[in-house]
Amino acid sequence: MDWTAFLDGFGVVTQPTNLLYCLIGVLIGMLIGVLPGLGPAATMAILLPIAYNANDPVSAIIMLAGIYYGAQYGGTITSVLLRIPGEASSVVTVFDGFALAKQGKAGTALGIAAIGSFVGATVSIIGLTLLGPIVAGYALDFGPPEYAALALLGVLLVATVGSGHTVKALAAAAVGLLLATVGSDSFTSANRFTFDTLQLQGGIDFVVVAMGLFGVGEILYNLEERHGKPHVPAAIANIWPSRKDLKQAGPAIGRGSVIGFLLGVLPGGGAVMASLAAYATEKRVAKDPSRFGRGAIEGVAGPESANNAAATSSFIPLLTIGIPANASMAMLYAALLVVGVTPGPQLIDERPDLFWGVINSMYIGNLILLILSIPLVGIFVKILRVRPAILAPITALITILGVYTINNSVFDIFVMIGFGILGYLMKKTGFEPGPLVLAFVLGSLMESSFRRSMLIFDGDPTGFVTRPISGTILAFILLVIALPLVKLALRRRDPDTTPTDKIDQEAGMR
Amino acid sequence: MTMTQPETRTEQEPDILAELQAEVAQELADERPPAGGAAYQIISAVVVLGFGVGAAVLAHGYGLGSLRRPGPGLWPFVVALVIALLALVLLVVGRKLDDAEKFTRASYLVLVGGATFVGLGLALPTIGFEIPAVALCIIWLRFLGGETWRSTIVISLCTTAGFYLLFLYALRIPLPHLIAF
Fold first, then answer.
1. DSSP tag of B33
2. Are A254 and A285 within 8 A, CB to CB?
3. Is A206 an interface residue toward B (CB < 8 Å)?
4. Quick one: which of B55, B82, B102, B179 is 20 to 30 A from A201 by CA?
5. Is there a contact between B173 and A405 (Cβ–Cβ < 8 Å)?
6. How far is the C-alpha of A354 from the C-alpha of A18, rounded, in Å?
7. Which chain B residues touch A507 with a CB distance below 8 Å?
8. Residue B70: which of A53, A413, A454 has the nearest Cβ?
9. Which residue of chain B has the CA closest to A462?
């Protein structure tokens, strides 16, 4: 590992502007984590124009990354105090977190969650620091067939592992792949699906698509859903956990960190799956599983450590191979392309300032988050009193004015609104917009890799299977396709589902 | 707080876990509007099917080429076929799904919200962003959000002023604007 580059990365982060962007990023992340409604992917989408307008692209990326991991901290607060998970990845925290709050130990739950989050994230960043360069070294040997297979695997995993109906998710992903072909073909420069308009010749800008589907789509959807009253959280006291609590939670934090790190690396995994797996693990290893749901501190510590560890380790496939593992990472992928950087194994050598700057900003960002979520948690609790109706027009304005500033183009505003309406209708009919956006972002990489491979193989598609790495990936893809079918067959035999399963599924749809 | 308290609590309320799970499930279910029926599923699948077939026809026209020399239409054609195929699967298996949400009276709010987006997009290049932005805020706060007139006006003006300062001064991004200093 190149230690000078690693240390230089700290030099990049400690520049005052970058520190400021990091602080703003984690603050926004924590805020949207606390406020139910917009998720991290939507917020990152809405703020993508910053990547066009920032003086230093590294700052913009640092900020967008901060939003993602900051949201994991914020989501905990509402889970514990209000029994409303601010983020899907904090759903399981609700059970024990709210039970602790009922017993007057909300402070302890939040304190342990913050410490667990910090430990989980830090373990994961260290893993990322050590493993990142190694993975990138391997990935340098990847050719077009490997990339075609990897992109396909990424899209398939996000569609099958994610929430919602699998066939619908796959259909959404396929539509994303198709939309990515709009515009002039890069091989033959033939126009495809442009309908003789000049504006479509350059293709549809993925930033505009993401802002529409995630941003406008969610804003419109929330407009209909949000009729709730403002929530008044319980008072919290004694945020510092006792030594006994820490001792009890310690092993759970350790296990959660490892589970989160491993699941976060997998495409489609990410924070939601990791928190569920960590909760299940804690329940399984506990001497007295019946304590869970009645205020077991491990039930908060494990999942919260896991979701932060996973949020962090999902940066690995993006920064080292160039394949985003989930919708939020797809937004970061888009931001990197906007600033003229192609994410991939060459990133670490070509732009060490960006690679290490972003990774090392996470060490500092998590430290800031720990400070924000222990001594300053009271401020964030007060924010819960802000009515959602007040924030809606502000986010709407940010979105419209932001998309206009990308190209000073009114056409972009209307394309965004179009995709916003599509996103709203998709949510109404049970199609998740996430797979569409991810597939759209990966679409051109997938098509060009596929076509280059066919040229290399001289038109013989068996070449994909006979190359060792792409063959292995394709075998894994077969496994991914076969697994849900097996599950389906098993479920038919045993139609009973426990209440917990149902909650998990419901929460996954949010 | 004594050590024994959790235990006594368990005795008094033996089913905190079940209670919590039921409450959370109930709340999540309450938040969602009534499920749309089979018509929603069929219509959405038919729309996807039409999209796939239409795209396949267009892509076919762009020239498929051969596997050795893929034409510009080959990849979109294959993807469009996959879309059509998945839509057919949805037509068969999707009818009993309950993941669609019914359009309710609240859906009109979305229509109004969408209209304000379009309105701002149309007005921006001609009269600048200030007046349409205030108008959008007023509509969203007063009519869609049910705020009082006083807070509506204060928040609308403050928000627009904030954006003016943020975009034109802090970020120095040229937005079309009326008021110039």
1. P
2. no
3. no
4. B82
5. yes
6. 11
7. 28
8. A454
9. B67
Give long-range contacts, CB 8 A cutoff, 24+ apart: A463-468: A463/A145, A464/A145, A464/A148, A464/A149, A467/A143, A467/A145, A467/A146
Sequence-ordered list of residues with C-beta below 8 angstroms from that of B96, at least 6 positions apart, any chain: B38
For residue A422, what are the contacts with CB-CB under 8 A and spacing of at least 6?
Answer: A212, A213, A217
CA distance linking residue A274 with residue A258, whole number of Å: 10
Estimate to the nearest angstrom the gap between the alpha carbon of A341 and the chain centroid.
20
Domain ranges of chain A: 3-509
- Of chain B residues 62-121, which have a CB less than 8 A from chain A? 62-63, 66-73, 75-76, 79-80, 82-83, 86-87, 89-90, 93-94, 97, 99-101, 103-104, 106-107, 109-110, 113-114, 116-118, 120-121
Percentage helix, strand, coil, to 5, in chain A? 75, 0, 25
> CA-nearest residue of chain B to A222?
B110
Q: Give me the pLDDT at residue B85, please.
A: 92
| E-strand stretches of A187-313 | 191-192
From chain A, pick out residues whose CB is under 8 angstroms from the CB of B144. 223, 389, 392
Which CA distances in Å does B171 have to A22, A28, A62, B57, B80? 17, 18, 18, 46, 42
pLDDT one digit per residue (tens) for chain B, 181 residues: 334 344 444 444 445 556 656 666 666 666 666 777 778 888 888 999 999 999 888 888 888 887 777 888 888 899 999 999 999 988 888 777 777 788 877 788 888 889 999 998 898 888 888 888 999 999 988 888 888 899 899 999 998 998 888 888 877 777 787 777 6
How do residues A342-374 score in pLDDT, each as one tens digit? 888 888 888 888 888 888 888 888 888 888 887
pLDDT for A161 equals: 66
* Predicted model pTM: 0.81
Closest-CA residue in chain B for A410?
A: B121
